[in-house]
């Protein structure tokens, strides 16, 4: 069974790219999407439309190759057995190191079961202007292990930034199979269907990403029952140089969309924001990367949820859990 890994740093447009591929999916194929998130609450699964021919499984709360290595193996085995998909797409966390995931997929547990196809890494050209990101070990290794590169955020990048991104990728050796400018996050399906087996080997998994010796619980992440109205559930975490705060509300709690957008606009550009909210304008997805906030309709109805992620170096700009809950309580529609 073909397995496609679409990796890339925080906010580089991985989920948008996968959405574009789903829109082009052959009608006779059933796909399974495995989404890993650094945050504890889990947002990305809520951003996929429910449909019979695409099964989406979320694994929030850490990195697939270390914190969730055991959970990842169990979840994939279960997904293959129960859903029997024709194709699997795995989206690691933006802070996830792909080497450990590739090793897991090539291990005895999946021998003769899956074929790891070309690893696609998304690259936001604007990130090359940020020395802190370029120096990040995971950012560099995500590009080193890539068989192919999708340049995202094309409409938000200057011609100079795009040219610099092409030059940056051209410096990698051996050459990548292809570099595609994914206009508005769209990648032609042929790039997926015509891909070969992944060729990149030899990357060592950094010490920070070594699998945990303890077996984590399979429970948690996506919860069966939402919290009581007006009493949000809060989860926080910290690893790999980043911190996260996640909140989750009862679906009957209704937010003022303008107040939400105004509050998020006050937060530092370093803070990555993803959320799904029941608002007075209906259910909406809010997504902010590099300071740019987008708002789109959502089919999710299970609950409202929010995840904030920021570098630990930006901790003075990251609200505390209590101040975040208080600020968002003021955005609830009275």
Summarize the structure.
This protein is α/β, with parallel strands linked by helices. The protein folds into two domains: 2-209, P-loop containing nucleotide triphosphate hydrolases (Rossmann fold), CATH 3.40.50; 233-329, CobW-like, C-terminal domain (Hypothetical Protein Yjia, Chain: A,domain 2), CATH 3.30.1220.
Counted up, domains total 2
SS-based class: alpha/beta
Q: From the 3D structure, determine the CATH topology of the largest domain.
A: Rossmann fold
SSE order in H/E notation?
EHEEHEHEEHHEHEHEEHEEEEH
> How many DSSP H or I helices?
9
- Determine the strand fraction and express it as a percent band: 25-35%
By CATH reckoning, the class of the largest domain would read: Alpha Beta
Q: Quick one: biggest sheet?
A: 8 strands, parallel
The helix fraction, in percent, is 10-25%
Distance between the termini: 51 Å
Structural commentary:
By secondary structure, the chain is α/β, with parallel strands linked by helices. The chain has 2 domains: 2-209, P-loop containing nucleotide triphosphate hydrolases (Rossmann fold), CATH 3.40.50.300; 233-329, CobW-like, C-terminal domain (Hypothetical Protein Yjia, Chain: A,domain 2, 2-Layer Sandwich), CATH 3.30.1220. It is 24% helix and 25% strand. It has 9 helices and 14 strands. The protein has helices at 14-23, 69-83, 98-105, 131-134, 137-144, 159-170, 190-193, 257-266, 321-329, and strands at residues 2-8, 31-37, 54-60, 87-91, 115-116, 120-123, 148-151, 178-181, 233-239, 242-249, 272-279, 282-289, 292-297, 304-311. The strands form 2 sheets. Strands 1, 2, 3, 4, 5, 6, 7 and 8 form an 8-stranded parallel beta sheet that branches. Strands 9-10-14-11-12-13 form a 6-stranded antiparallel beta sheet, covered by helices on one side. Strand 9 and strand 10 form a beta hairpin. It is globular. It starts with a strand and ends in a 5-residue tail after the last helix. Residues 211-223 have low confidence and may be disordered.
């Amino acid at each position: 069974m073909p397995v496609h890994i679409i990796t890339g740093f925080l906010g580089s447009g991985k989920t948008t790219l996968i959405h574009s591929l789903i829109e082009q999916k052959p009608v006779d194929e059933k796909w399974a999407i495995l989404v890993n998130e650094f945050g504890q609450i889990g947002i990305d699964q809520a951003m996929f439309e429910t449909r019979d021919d695409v099964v989406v499984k979320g694994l929030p709360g850490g990195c697939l190759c270390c914190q969730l290595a055991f959970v990842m193996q169990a979840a994939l085995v279960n997904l293959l057995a129960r859903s029997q998909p024709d194709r699997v797409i795995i989206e690691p966390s933006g802070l996830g190191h792909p080497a450990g995931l590739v090793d897991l997929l090539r291990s005895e547990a999946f021998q003769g079961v899956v074929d790891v196809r070309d690893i696609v890494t998304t690259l936001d050209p604007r990130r090359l202007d940020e020395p802190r990101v370029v120096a990040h070990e995971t950012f560099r290794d995500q590009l080193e292990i890539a068989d192919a590169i999708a340049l995202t955020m094309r409409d938000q990048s200057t011609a100079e930034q795009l040219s610099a991104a092409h030059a940056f990728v051209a410096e990698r050796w051996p050459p990548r199979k292809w570099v595609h400018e994914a206009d508005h996050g769209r990648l032609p399906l042929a790039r997926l269907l015509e891909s070969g087996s992944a060729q990149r080997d030899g990357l060592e998994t950094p010490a920070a990403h070594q699998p945990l010796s303890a077996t984590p619980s399979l429970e948690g992440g996506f919860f069966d029952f939402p919290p009581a109205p007006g009493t949000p559930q809060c989860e926080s975490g910290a690893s790999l140089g980043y911190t996260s705060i996640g909140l989750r509300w009862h679906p009957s709690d209704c937010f003022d969309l303008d107040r939400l957008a105004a509050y998020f606009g006050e937060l530092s550009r370093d803070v990555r924001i993803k959320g799904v909210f029941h608002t007075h304008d209906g259910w909406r997805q809010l997504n902010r990367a590099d300071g740019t906030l987008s708002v789109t309709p959502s089919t999710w109805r299970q609950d409202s949820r929010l995840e904030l992620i920021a570098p630990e170096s930006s901790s003075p700009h990251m609200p505390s859990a209590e101040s975040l809950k208080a600020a968002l309580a003021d955005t609830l529609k009275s």
